[in-house]
């Protein structure tokens, strides 16, 4: 199998290494030709002369790990060329762009997989299995959090889409994936305690959202850009008979207030380390999908549903009110 990789930055380079162990040939392209050659050389892979060269390289599939603003265009181009495509979230930069992209893809049988890697994290998968098996009883509460060790660069913040769309959207997708339920309404809030870059962009560095699910269960999603103790992603599912947690291990940067257990290992530095196994698993699933002609494990419509929740949370925070998902659905 010959797979093209568009984007050789941090996540692209990680994907390139994984793909090098999964497929026969990898072809790398990047807006920075030197960076593409450097990543390709480490793998003994081929570097294409830009994106046009990539799409002329006789590919069987494409992985898109370029900046967000280019995702929609490259996904549509790949599908029109008949190439199965994996794209890092988000599918497009905003809600309107996502809906336009889905309209452009409608009617095509070329599979598209969106990179929500938590769907492949062993802990999240086990939590989903526990819910589906019924051993937790009926689920009444879900708690999901994402805490960044350090904030993103200041120049990224104005184009990030905001805390809920950029960061918590992973939690929103994880809640839907683990419970198998849809979100019906949200109530969100946020604050700024760090330097002023977030506030200057109309964003917050810390936020929480209360989600009501379609079966009456509630989910609490929390996020912060400032958690110097270490990168921390956890999800709890609490049922009438039992509860489970994903992401709680000896590297979780959390300790009891008094004497007791202390983490045994160093905390995760960031998402690439915390989700290394999940990132590899999602690409294995993509390659398997291409080889076997199976359905996408995370189709773009799922990305839209998580984005609806993020959009509703953004409105709720700004207007200080509860927002129904139907209010933002189009």
Automatic annotation (TrEMBL):
InterPro entries per record: Gfo/Idh/MocA-like_OxRdtase_N (IPR000683), GFO_IDH_MocA-like_dom (IPR055170), NAD(P)-bd_dom_sf (IPR036291)
Domain Gfo/Idh/MocA-like oxidoreductase N-terminal stretches: 1-116
Gene3D superfamilies (UniProt xref): Dihydrodipicolinate Reductase, domain 2, NAD(P)-binding Rossmann-like Domain
This protein's record includes keyword Oxidoreductase: yes
Pfam families named in the record: GFO_IDH_MocA, GFO_IDH_MocA_C3
Source species, domain of life: Bacteria
GO MF entries: nucleotide binding; oxidoreductase activity
Keywords: Oxidoreductase
Name under which the protein is recorded: Dehydrogenase
Family according to the record: Belongs to the Gfo/Idh/MocA family.
Residue ranges constituting the GFO/IDH/MocA-like oxidoreductase domain according to the UniProt record: 125-244
């Amino acid at each position: 199998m010959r797979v093209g990789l568009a984007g050789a930055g941090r996540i692209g380079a990680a994907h390139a290494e994984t793909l090098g162990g999964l497929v026969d040939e990898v072809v790398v392209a990047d807006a920075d030709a030197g960076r593409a050659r450097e990543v390709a050389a480490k793998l003994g892979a081929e570097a294409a002369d830009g994106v046009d060269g990539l799409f002329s390289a006789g590919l069987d599939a494409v992985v898109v790990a370029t900046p967000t603003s280019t995702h929609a265009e490259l996904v549509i181009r790949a599908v029109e060329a008949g190439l199965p495509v994996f794209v890092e979230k988000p599918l497009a930069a905003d809600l309107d762009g996502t809906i336009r992209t889905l309209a452009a893809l409608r009617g095509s049988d070329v599979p598209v997989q969106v990179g929500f890697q938590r769907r492949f994290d062993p802990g999240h998968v086990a939590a989903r299995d526990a819910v589906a098996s019924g051993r937790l009883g009926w689920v009444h509460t879900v708690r999901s959090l994402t805490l960044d060790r350090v904030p993103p660069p200041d120049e990224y913040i104005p184009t990030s889409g905001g805390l809920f769309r950029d960061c918590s959207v992973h939690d929103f997708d994880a809640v839907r994936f683990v419970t198998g339920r849809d979100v019906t309404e949200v109530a969100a809030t946020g604050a700024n305690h760090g330097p002023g870059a977030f506030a200057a962009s109309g964003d917050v560095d810390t936020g929480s959202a209360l989600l009501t699910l379609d079966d009456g269960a509630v989910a609490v999603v929390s996020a912060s850009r400032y958690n110097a103790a270490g990168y921390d992603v956890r999800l709890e599912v609490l049922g009438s008979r039992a509860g489970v947690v994903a992401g709680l291990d000896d590297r979780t940067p959390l300790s009891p207030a008094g004497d007791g257990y202390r983490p045994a290992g160093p905390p995760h530095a960031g998402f690439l380390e915390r989700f290394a196994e999940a990132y590899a698993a999602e690409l294995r699933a993509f390659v398997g999908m291409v080889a076997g002609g199976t359905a996408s494990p995370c189709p773009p419509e799922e990305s839209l549903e998580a984005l609806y929740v993020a959009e509703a949370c953004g409105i709720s925070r700004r207007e200080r009110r509860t927002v129904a998902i139907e209010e933002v659905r189009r």
